[in-house]
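User: Structure with tryptophan, tokens only please.
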Amino acid sequence: MTDPDHDSRAPDRPYPDGGREARSASDGSSGQRPRDTATGADETTLDPWGSSTVDDYRNLFEEFGIEAFDDVLAGVPAPHYLMRRGVIFGHRGYGRVLDALRNDDPAAALSGFMPTGDPHIGHKLVFDELIWHQERGADTYGLIADLEAHSARGLSWAEIDEHARDYLLSLIALGFDPEDGELYRQSDNRPLQDLAFELGIETNFSELESIYGFGGETDVSHMQSVVTQMADILYPQLDGPKPTVIPVGPDQDPHVRLSRDLAARMRYFGVTEAYASFEADPAERALLAEVFEALSSSDEDDPVRCVAAADWLAERDDGSAAAAGAIEKLRAAGKEPLRPRTRFLDRNATKDAFSALIEAVEGEKRVYEGHIDSFELSPEAADDLAREIELDHGGYGFVAPSSVYHRFMTGLTGGKMSSSIPASHISLLDDPEDGYDKVKSATTGGRETAEKQRELGGKADECPVYELYAYLLAADDDEFATKVYEECTGGERLCGGCKEQAAELMREFLAEHQEKRAEAEALLEDLDIDLDSPRAT
Ligand code: TRP
Ligand code: SF4
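Assistant:
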């Protein structure tokens, strides 16, 4: 096994996590094959309906721009063990959710489940993440993605009803408080559908084609399930903008990215920095910042003129499109002085909202057709003002949703943990004895003989049984998980006894979980959620 990262990271953790090597995705394949979906140079695919495989989680940082969870870990109040152990490995924009949690500001957490089979121990990771956020004060939502299961996976409504019930019972049994949080199914949530419809106006087919590989044969309901998921993700903000975290597997990242785009597109105003009256894209803007920095002096009578800035850039022209664009715009602006400012761009504002913003910007400002420049407001203050005006005029004022990503669990038989291969996973509904048996027959990272194991140690990093300890069985007890790891790799622990211990813990866990599920029945009955679809097919 080669993992150059291994030694350097190990000391950062209470113990090395079990998932750093090759790991692959959950759930079986869809009727619709992965097309040219988000594919990186080394063939990592992130396909919500395919069987995503992730060979090396580090690729996700470089290729897709997912940020490392390690970078925010220090700011997490009493981190969950899945965070401490590196099972939760990545995020997008989670910092703003952490800030809100720390300051007791409004925050939300939401995730969704396609009711295509039994909930299993892989889903438990997400249940735990939701519950953790709920316990820290976030408004927490769990939803049943029944429209998606029906359209993208072809499940009947009767099957969906049954599985939906099972997901909800397990979520409640694990500690979700349904009175404090909200559980819903996509198909009977009217405000959700209305939001999906609005978001559909901002989404076009070529975009779905490039993100998901949709084509002429893709059915319309599948596309509708995408805008429905976009609405799910923004749903917690219907009663006011707030940082929202979406805990999911990395296969859902394409959805997260689209939702972040849509959140911005729905805004009335965009706020950017600017240097002159013309509009510039981010790359051009970076060059304008550079040239301004280089040429400006403190002498107010001697401002940097756009033509002079163009000349300066032309001399250093690196041949990039950004340089060409910036030079052309600067020349066209002629003698206009370069001056840093904060710009409000009109994206979707109503006329009234645009006029109201003009009124509300204090201090020196200039008004153009599609934007307003303020020479006194900081970008942060401008952002707050833009949102305030938007909310006053009927807009949503969405904050970009954030996400956290967890590693996929390895199947007990090696390879993927898949809902469609019963021996590969442990269902939360499995008879405790069956759970015991499945662990006993799991693949391990052990050596061929006990003798060799004593001599060389086991390969805990490649062992699905060790993963069970780290992801579930050791729960909050870091010391215990570390002990298993060290005894294994040190050759003191042999697979027979190790599996016996894990199997017994699994039996206990399942028995206890199922008792709690039985207790959760009454709570579920009391909720206003219809688990008998009136639909025929
Ligand atoms: N697409 C998700 C899945 O395949 C389910 C889902 C629907 C979801 N809406 C969501 C997940 C919103 C997170 C947030 O499992
Ligand atoms: Fe896996 Fe336990 Fe064997 Fe180590 S001793 S390889 S953790 S089963």
